[in-house]
Amino acid sequence: MTTRKFDQTLELSNDGKLSLFFIGCGSAFSKTFFQSNILVVKGNDHLLIDCGTLCPYVLKTVYNSHVKNIKNLLITHPHADHVGGVEEMALVAFYTNKNKINMVITDDFKKKLWNQTLRGGIQYSELGKMTFNDYFSQIKPVKIQSKPFDMYSVSIGEIKFKMFRTRHVTTSRKSLRGSQLSYGILFEDRILFTGDTQFNPSQLEWFDRNYKLDCIFHDCDIKGFATGVHSSYEQLKTLPAELKAKMYLYHYNNEIKSVTPKEDGFAGIVNSGFYYDF
Q1: Is a pLDDT exceeding 70 seen at residue 224?
Q2: What is the pLDDT of residue 171?
Q3: What mean pLDDT, rounded, does the chain reach?
Q4: Per-residue exposure over 216-242, b if at least 16 CB sit within 10 Å of its own CB, e if not
Q5: Cα–Cα distance between 166 and 128 in angstroms, integer?
């Protein structure tokens, strides 16, 4: 993996390498590191993973781009720092671009996202009652396993990945059944992006055992709301050394300054405004 800093124009295509660009790397309320939304690019294809409340603003003011340029979208889960900018995306695409956004989404999540999150803001228009299908074209993931957790296969042109269920926001730490619907992503069977997840070492070890991971981008809560929601820094420190050595931490708050990730065995932390090229 190599890294390079953003320079004037946000890339929506490249020479064929897999590139992950962190629009933000912060926790839900971070105004310093912005929210953890990422742009994935390979060849002529791109995919925005999550579009939080700050995402349209940051794209315009920091990266000289615009949500109207985004054609493909995946939402990991319906918290505002991951979905709060989707309403703007939908309206801009519909009224300005005169097209639909391609959204990677399962049938179950499609129904919940529309009825519980998006419907209240964009159902009504001068054209009458609108539906999910008026704003979005569904790209339906193909389910490839149910145990030990649901996993799906997806292709967006040259971008190949798998989506998998994570355990996020639940009173039962040992079960997915009571947790919020949320997903992580495995790119090219070697690069793991956890999305928002509780500490789940058995899932990490399963992926490393079955896919021999090259790199892990893991969400990390530092002195905040870790219990039942995110993985805490102290929990992640207990992982085997070989996992930590390829793990980059993101979704952190200003307390990141109080810890020493490299000294504690991690590969490092993610920085917003950087391309991570593979």
Answers
A1: no
A2: 62
A3: 94
A4: bbbbbbbebebeebbbbbebbeebeee
A5: 37
d(CA 152, CA 186): 10
Q: Are strands 19-22 and 38-42 parallel, antiparallel or unpaired?
A: antiparallel
Dist. CA 52–CA 35, nearest whole Å: 7
Strand order of the β-sheet with 142-145 is 142-145, 151-156, 159-165, 183-187, 191-193, 215-219, 247-250, 268-269
Q: Which residue has the tokens 């992580």?
A: 184
Cβ neighbours around 113 below 10 Å, total:
22
> pLDDT by residue (tens digit) across 169-221?
776 556 666 678 899 999 999 999 999 998 999 999 999 999 999 999 999 99
**pLDDT interval class at 230 (50, 70, 90):** confident
The candidate with the shortest Cα–Cα distance to 226, out of 190, 252, 263, 265, is 252
Q: Which amino acid, one-letter code, is at 80? A: A
